[in-house]
């Protein structure tokens, strides 16, 4: 039974976007801070630190999670995915990202990473969602710029494209 | 908004968690989904010396059927329960209420037992537990005990749980033939804390109505099978008895109005689907 | 003037910004590295709305490892001054309190530590002693002669009182057939961008110079205010902005006081300082829009034609008047007649201070506060006369042939055809179908209404409008202020590629995309070959006071000046190319990456080669061209003149037109508002990027929906801040947003280089009142204020009298006045001991120590005065507090009054309880108690929903313990019984 003392720092290991990573943290360090300031992965944003805004949403072991409500030490051994892992390669956007770009589904881009991670996680399990279902998923995020309509449109569009793309899973990474 | 310092224990066995809870002398908190505890930590509203993470305990990971009840251990997440295909037949009231608990993102982490232990007066899961007359299974290093839901919620975020006990599981009675179940709530936005939430069960003998968001704890009342103005009168008395308060979201009068309205609505709906 | 046609419009062109932002590569302020040794700041903030600051104890915090310094207001007294407002008043508007706090959330100390976690640990240990003062929260109450005065040197809370008359309002009112007034109390709200404030600052003592990186949005007139507050000349304040900013909606103007604070802290500590605001800080301590009390009266004829308006506006700027305030009140000065041709106007503008967060820029900036009363009034006039509100609006609109139209108050409306735009909206937006839906809904007994709003959306504000707060004589003395300098710089590098730099400081509005397109079109090269930078460095980039991202100035002004700079550079390049091709410059065209002859396409030079000529071959550049390497253009529109001697104010350059209508339904039982249809017609001149315009309209609409229905920064009567989390301050989410039908009509602006007008703020002005008008129509109301919460609407729907409690029912707690946050309770219990014994217990400090929940040590200062350290809490919510308890009105052994205060990291509280002891007739005592308590600070801000129940638990706990103590001998089981009884009496009735 590991007991991690408040008084010292601890090494925590998990995979981020498929790559094994270790980072030194305190027992109280939030996963947001571990990702951003420990690993330099600043794509996960901090908007409220009380679990409401959703900017920090990442995927942990395939489920959506507010990174601001997650202790880094509690993610030991977990499989974490962040916005930095959504692209198909350097300079190549994934399906969901490209749909956001086409639909002007972002303005300042601050909330976007969290919404992308929620949708990416959701679409993996629910490839044929209704508009209402997607609206509910996006409803777990705050965006102050777009008015949400283009985000819903982008999500629907991406879902349709991904369904088509699923015939050739080897060619297209998810979202 | 960063948490204060604490020791962190990732329990590998239930005994370890209970031992740590015992050793902390009341200054530990169980960390399950963290969707209520972590915001409070980030706001520094709470300062436990020790956090005991129970989410790696296999023994707490799976819901199970047991003697007429769905037993939901502390490691089960809300989303897992909502995804349980048989839930709508097993505990239809909870199946109706769970989609109202936060958002998909918080349900993916949050646990029904954590919600019960936290005992927010507006929370949906404690309300359902109370409406169904379910049980809370508590365990400490020395003993296990079962507390009826009606005895468990004793005040604003205060419960019958002793400091060295954890909520090991909740037990939700399975759907009974001839009983109808209904849930409804009004919140400012979808996913917000309920201003008023109502859950009703109706069978051939009685109406049981539970109300959340009004008193300092979820509160239930059993009524005979009333209708018409007699039911209105009973709902009105209940609405007044709950001692509604006022906050930035709603007035006391509004809460009473909603108790009368939603109460009637869920009773009607529960009656309708009694078979 | 004004380029028309499609040249600069790229429908749905994807943004150059997006790929990076979508991949997590954005560079927001907290994503940028800091210098080694940078300290992280946490701010200790006031839990009190109004109190003297008696002492700050830093010692405990300084003992914490990692904590380097604790800096207070008095530490900064010598190196800073206040942030001067636009109005000379004796208000020392410092960024940190010195000897008095005036709003909840006001900074009182800065803790600097190795990281933010440790800084917050330190902040928890800073002990501040306050002496409370009465607070004033309501702007009208602040004007009452014996109201608490915030700033003693001013002598009252009234900062400014100006009256204006245009035309002949007296005559118009005296001869009018009808007159009608509306009174509006416009509430507080804020922009709440998803990214909060951030500042990284350092100081070089050798050069006496500051370097500040902040996600500030402008206006850069504030640069002068910051430099002055830091007591350095402008060139010793290098203010930089990060490449990306996570939204602003105006409020990131309010970073300025924190820039001062962190810069000064860096100077004191001798190391760079970084501060990233958290969301609780943001809601309590960033910037609020003004709340305003308006009485608007109209004189009108039988057809509803308005002859005159009389505005009485009382503006509440919070605790301090900070630059650019009171600009919210004057931003609309030229537009006080809205979209209507009204010649006679009277205005009284008063500015008052109250114990609330200071105000500043919030999207719409003064527009919502003006259009709400104006458009409610138009509906009222129609109701009063039994006319169709649409007819009344239409009848009063400025006719198309009147443009450019000079309003009574001095604005020059550039262009428009309001009636045609309205007619198109009514037709294409389907008003007749909507009227049918209303009829059908009403026939079914549902509560359905339709609202209309016409509004003029001003953009590109005149930097001189705020001087209207001064009298003409004061203005004459100070010298005229006017204009709106915008600037752009185009640079050609040695390989002939193009870089554009502008001082527009966007927060996601796609400026880089639009500018790349505009400049590329001028040079005849693909947009991808133009790079645009929008981060600003005041030490190196071209900028002026009007720089920044506000007043919807980008499309109208910044895009235009970039066009101007590119055109100038192109003309130089044309002459360079002409010299080499032996052609006339005017015969050259820039297209397809070439500079070629208009008539002979074989005579050409690659654009890149011409563009690089001044670097490599200056000898080939004609002497009179100079060099063609970098071109900086400034542009200020001549129409933005200074306010004149008669107070005519050309407050803005461009004037878009909006016409909205909507249908809403109010649920009779729950009071919830459902928006059935919403149609918004915009004339924003030439549209440079349809996708971005749609984004601005949709985003503004949803923000306005928030202001109308969900959002309010709520303060209690005692000044406690009550909406401190995003679970209290409710931004709309995807599930709350209805369909929005957007329509366009185009009247190019003749005043802007590209014919564009601003479009980003309009719905924040039009939508709140349009929804309110629909609700008023649905509920048949004359008076209606925001926000349109379900509790409010339900109360308006419901019968006036509630179903009473059943006979014999215990009366509910007395209905509190709105804003009164007093927690009241009562209880009783019986104990076995006699009254005399219980009485003795009450006066015994040892007993109190055991009875006060969580008391660590009780000190007896006198027989009736005790202090204690207590840990109070409910469930997991626990905090340490210093308690001070006094017994008074002693009536031994029958009763006593307990007065107590507690203060600690989670806030403060105070209360009074009367305890009565009566013999119960069998040797025991009946203990009765009543209490009134109020709680402020963090707990009130983040846990208001739970306070009442929490107080019952804590106070009930005290009496339970007292009962236990009094009766806890001899009788087994008694204690438990008593406890149960007391808890029952304090909690829910069984």
TrEMBL record, chain A:
<protein>
    <submittedName>
        <fullName>(2Fe-2S)-binding protein</fullName>
    </submittedName>
</protein>
<dbReference type="InterPro" id="IPR012675">
    <property type="entry name" value="Beta-grasp_dom_sf"/>
</dbReference>
<keyword id="KW-0479">Metal-binding</keyword>
<keyword id="KW-0411">Iron-sulfur</keyword>
<feature type="domain" description="2Fe-2S ferredoxin-type">
    <location>
        <begin position="10"/>
        <end position="86"/>
    </location>
</feature>
<dbReference type="GO" id="GO:0046872">
    <property type="term" value="F:metal ion binding"/>
</dbReference>
<dbReference type="Pfam" id="PF00111">
    <property type="entry name" value="Fer2"/>
</dbReference>
<keyword id="KW-0001">2Fe-2S</keyword>
<dbReference type="InterPro" id="IPR051452">
    <property type="entry name" value="Diverse_Oxidoreductases"/>
</dbReference>
<dbReference type="InterPro" id="IPR001041">
    <property type="entry name" value="2Fe-2S_ferredoxin-type"/>
</dbReference>
<dbReference type="InterPro" id="IPR036010">
    <property type="entry name" value="2Fe-2S_ferredoxin-like_sf"/>
</dbReference>
<keyword id="KW-0560">Oxidoreductase</keyword>
<keyword id="KW-0408">Iron</keyword>
<dbReference type="InterPro" id="IPR006058">
    <property type="entry name" value="2Fe2S_fd_BS"/>
</dbReference>
<dbReference type="InterPro" id="IPR002888">
    <property type="entry name" value="2Fe-2S-bd"/>
</dbReference>
TrEMBL record, chain B:
<dbReference type="InterPro" id="IPR005107">
    <property type="entry name" value="CO_DH_flav_C"/>
</dbReference>
<dbReference type="GO" id="GO:0016491">
    <property type="term" value="F:oxidoreductase activity"/>
</dbReference>
<dbReference type="InterPro" id="IPR016166">
    <property type="entry name" value="FAD-bd_PCMH"/>
</dbReference>
<dbReference type="InterPro" id="IPR051312">
    <property type="entry name" value="Diverse_Substr_Oxidored"/>
</dbReference>
<dbReference type="InterPro" id="IPR036683">
    <property type="entry name" value="CO_DH_flav_C_dom_sf"/>
</dbReference>
<dbReference type="GO" id="GO:0071949">
    <property type="term" value="F:FAD binding"/>
</dbReference>
<dbReference type="Pfam" id="PF00941">
    <property type="entry name" value="FAD_binding_5"/>
</dbReference>
<dbReference type="InterPro" id="IPR016169">
    <property type="entry name" value="FAD-bd_PCMH_sub2"/>
</dbReference>
<dbReference type="InterPro" id="IPR016167">
    <property type="entry name" value="FAD-bd_PCMH_sub1"/>
</dbReference>
<keyword id="KW-0560">Oxidoreductase</keyword>
<feature type="domain" description="FAD-binding PCMH-type">
    <location>
        <begin position="1"/>
        <end position="177"/>
    </location>
</feature>
<keyword id="KW-0274">FAD</keyword>
<dbReference type="Pfam" id="PF03450">
    <property type="entry name" value="CO_deh_flav_C"/>
</dbReference>
<keyword id="KW-0285">Flavoprotein</keyword>
<dbReference type="InterPro" id="IPR002346">
    <property type="entry name" value="Mopterin_DH_FAD-bd"/>
</dbReference>
From TrEMBL, chain C:
<dbReference type="InterPro" id="IPR036856">
    <property type="entry name" value="Ald_Oxase/Xan_DH_a/b_sf"/>
</dbReference>
<dbReference type="Pfam" id="PF02738">
    <property type="entry name" value="MoCoBD_1"/>
</dbReference>
<dbReference type="InterPro" id="IPR023393">
    <property type="entry name" value="START-like_dom_sf"/>
</dbReference>
<feature type="domain" description="Aldehyde oxidase/xanthine dehydrogenase a/b hammerhead">
    <location>
        <begin position="23"/>
        <end position="134"/>
    </location>
</feature>
<keyword id="KW-0560">Oxidoreductase</keyword>
<dbReference type="GO" id="GO:0005506">
    <property type="term" value="F:iron ion binding"/>
</dbReference>
<dbReference type="InterPro" id="IPR016208">
    <property type="entry name" value="Ald_Oxase/xanthine_DH-like"/>
</dbReference>
<dbReference type="Pfam" id="PF06240">
    <property type="entry name" value="COXG"/>
</dbReference>
<dbReference type="InterPro" id="IPR010419">
    <property type="entry name" value="CO_DH_gsu"/>
</dbReference>
<dbReference type="GO" id="GO:0016491">
    <property type="term" value="F:oxidoreductase activity"/>
</dbReference>
<dbReference type="InterPro" id="IPR037165">
    <property type="entry name" value="AldOxase/xan_DH_Mopterin-bd_sf"/>
</dbReference>
<dbReference type="InterPro" id="IPR008274">
    <property type="entry name" value="AldOxase/xan_DH_MoCoBD1"/>
</dbReference>
<dbReference type="InterPro" id="IPR046867">
    <property type="entry name" value="AldOxase/xan_DH_MoCoBD2"/>
</dbReference>
<dbReference type="Pfam" id="PF01315">
    <property type="entry name" value="Ald_Xan_dh_C"/>
</dbReference>
<protein>
    <submittedName>
        <fullName>Xanthine dehydrogenase family protein molybdopterin-binding subunit</fullName>
    </submittedName>
</protein>
